[in-house]
Amino acid sequence: MGIKDRMKPLILAGKTEINDPSLAIFRFQPVEGQIANFEAGQYFTIGDDVAKPEGVKFVPRPYSISSSPRVRDSVEFYIVKVDGGEFTTHLFNKKIGETLWYMGPKGKFTLNHTKLAHLVFIGTGTGLAPFVSMIRTLKMDGTAKNFTLTLMHGNRTCAELGYLDEMRGYETDPALNFAYLPTVSRPDGDPGWNAAVGRGRVNDTLRFLLGMHKQGKVEPVLPARQSREIFLERMPPGKTAYFLCGNPDMISDAKAALAESKFAPPEEIFSEDYW
Ligand SMILES: Cc1cc2nc3c(=O)[nH]c(=O)nc-3n(C[C@H](O)[C@H](O)[C@H](O)COP(=O)(O)OP(=O)(O)OC[C@H]3O[C@@H](n4cnc5c(N)ncnc54)[C@H](O)[C@@H]3O)c2cc1C
Ligand SMILES: NC(=O)c1ccc[n+]([C@@H]2O[C@H](COP(=O)([O-])OP(=O)(O)OC[C@H]3O[C@@H](n4cnc5c(N)ncnc54)[C@H](OP(=O)(O)O)[C@@H]3O)[C@@H](O)[C@H]2O)c1
Questions:
Q1: How sure is the predictor about 1, in pLDDT bands with cuts at 50, 70 and 90?
Q2: Ligand 1 centroid, distance to 105 Cα (angstroms)
Q3: Can you say whether the dihedral through the CA atoms of 194, 174, 229, 262 is positive or negative?
Q4: Distance of CA 16 to the CA centre of its chain
Q5: Which atom of ligand 2 is nearest to the CA of 159?
Q6: C-alpha dihedral, 201 to 202 to 205 to 210, nearest 10°
Q7: Nearest bound ligand to CA 86?
Q8: pLDDT for 210-241, tens place per residue?
Q9: Domains with residue ranges and CATH for the chain
Q10: pTM of the predicted model as reported, rounded to 2 decimal places
Q11: CA of residue 144 to ligand 1 center, whole Å
C-alpha cells in the first residue's frame, strides 16, 4: 500500500496570489464530508502525481494549516513556490477544480504545550501559516483575550507580507490583545517599503528587543510608533512562550538569542523548521 492509498482527495477551490504568482493562499475542499480534525499549528501532508522525464511520481510534502479547525468545510494553506521545487512547481500549475491528496494531521507545534499567557510568535515567509490558524482559533473560541499575543513576521520585501490586512485588523480588534510587528530584510530599493513596516531580519528584530547585537547586514529598526519598551512589557522573562516557524537559520539564531539573554528557558521555546 503506497502513501497515496492512505490519503483522501481534495479539490482546489481557491488560490489568492500575494502580489506575485509565486506566493499564494490555497483553499481546498474535501470531496466527501469534512476536513479531518486538527489542532491549530498542525500540518497536513499534501501530495499529487507529478510528471517527470522518467515517468509519473507521487510527491508528498507537509504544509502548515492556516485555517482554523473550527471551520472544516475547507482548508487553507499559505505556500511559496520554491525555485525548482519538485512539488510547488507542480502545485502552482494546478487549476481550480482539480484534485490533490492529503493525509494527517501531524505535528506538535500547538499552543497546548505551554501554560503561559504571554505568547510571542516569530515566523519567516510562509512560516506565518500556523500563527494565522492559532490566532483565528483563539478569536473564534472567544479565548484570545486570555493571552498577550505578539506576532513578528519577517520577509524579504513588503510585497511578501501575506495576511497583512487581517493582521492589521487584529491590532485594533477588541477581542484580542495583539501586537503585530512586520519587518523586511531588504527594505532598500523595495518600492513597497514604508515606515509602518520594520527593517531587518526578524531574528535581528528579536535581538534588538533583547538588547543584543544583530547578526545580519541590515540594522534592525522597529515600525513607526512602536517601541522596544512596549514590546518588552509584552514578553516578561520567564512568563513568555516563544513559537518559531519557517527558515531553520532564523529559528536557530532566535533560540540562541533567547538562551543567551535568558528571556526564555528551552522548554518554553517551540519551533517548526520548514527545511
Ligand atoms: C512541518 C512542515 C510544514 C511546512 N509548511 C509549509 C507551509 O505552510 N508553506 C510552505 O510554503 N512550505 C511549508 N513547508 C515546506 C514544504 O514542505 C516543502 O518543503 C516546500 O514547499 C518545497 O517543496 P518542493 O517539493 O517544491 O521543493 P523541493 O524540490 O523538495 O526542494 C526543497 C528545498 O527547497 C528549500 N525550501 C523548502 N521549503 C522552503 C520554503 N518554504 N522557503 C524557502 N526554501 C524552502 C529547501 O532548501 C529545501 O531543501 C513545510 C515543511 C515542513 C517540514
Ligand atoms: N515572490 C516570489 O517570487 C518569491 C517570494 C518569496 C520566495 N520565493 C522563493 O521561495 C523560496 C523561499 O523564500 P522566502 O523568502 O519565503 O524564504 P527565506 O529565503 O527563508 O526568506 C525569508 C526571511 O528569512 C530571512 N533569512 C534568510 N536567511 C536567513 C538566515 N540565515 N538567518 C536569518 N534569517 C534569514 C530572509 O532574509 P534575507 O533577505 O536577508 O535573505 C527573509 O527575511 C526561495 O527559493 C525564493 O527564491 C519567491
A1: confident
A2: 17
A3: negative
A4: 16
A5: 1
A6: -130
A7: 1
A8: 999 999 999 999 999 999 999 999 999 999 99
A9: 3-106 (2.40.30.10), 111-273 (3.40.50.80)
A10: 0.98
A11: 30
